[in-house]
Design a protein that fits this description.
The protein is mostly helical. The chain has 9 helices and no strands.
Length: 206
């Protein structure tokens, strides 16, 4: 099965403080952030989280740190710990697409174990990422996976096609387009507008 794609990484953009002590703390926080981001790139989320937690303690309002730390938690499947951190980041910077991407991943958890409420919250957050930046990588792919899981093939295909428009080299999106296209062709009971399993009476708003 094609992999999920999430956990955006962010660079620090915090302004320096005129207070020398605060400026020193921010400098150390940036150093921890950079080291943590390198560890994330090396697929070492546990080590990254330890550094990023120190960074956040030094600079608790730094959104770039929150995005990276949230990503580290997600990679460790510590979703409940990631959610409040990333919700705060989205409140501070509501136009930060990367913050919404990671929040969506935290809301969703493992797709195959997620319920309708988790999926609805993830969809809302992914759509906020697209509002902030319609070209945000992997968002349409992840939306396609959610709708595929729900049985809404038409919406899934639309998002996989959009993912391929944004990144023509996205082999995972192409894989699902081809697979779902073959399924439609061989299943006379399925139409493009069929959304069996796409909704549930248990769904609740975010």
């Amino acid at each position: 099965m094609a992999k999920r794609k999430h956990c955006a990484h962010a660079e620090d953009s915090a302004a320096s403080s005129p207070d020398p002590a605060a400026a020193s703390a921010q400098q150390r926080a940036r150093e921890y952030l950079n080291a943590g981001a390198r560890l994330l790139a090396q697929h070492k989320p546990g080590e990254a989280a330890a550094l990023l937690e120190d960074a956040l303690a030094l600079d608790p309002h730094n959104v770039a740190i929150a995005i990276n730390l949230g990503g580290a938690y997600i990679l460790q499947r510590r979703y409940a710990k990631a959610v409040p951190l990333l919700e705060a980041a989205c409140q501070r910077e509501p136009d930060n697409a990367m913050a919404w991407v990671n929040l969506a991943a935290a809301y969703l958890g493992r797709l195959e174990l997620s319920d309708v409420h988790q999926q609805d919250r993830a969809i809302d957050a992914f759509e906020r990422a697209l509002l902030a930046d319609p070209q945000t990588p992997h968002v349409n792919y992840n939306l396609g996976l959610i709708y595929k899981e729900r049985g809404d093939v038409a919406r899934a295909m639309a998002h996989f096609w959009r993912a391929l428009e944004i990144d023509p080299d996205d082999r995972d999106a192409r894989y699902w387009i081809e697979l779902l296209g073959r399924s439609d062709a061989t299943d006379p009971a399925r139409s493009g507008d069929d959304a069996d399993g796409a909704s549930s009476s248990e769904a609740s708003p975010s």
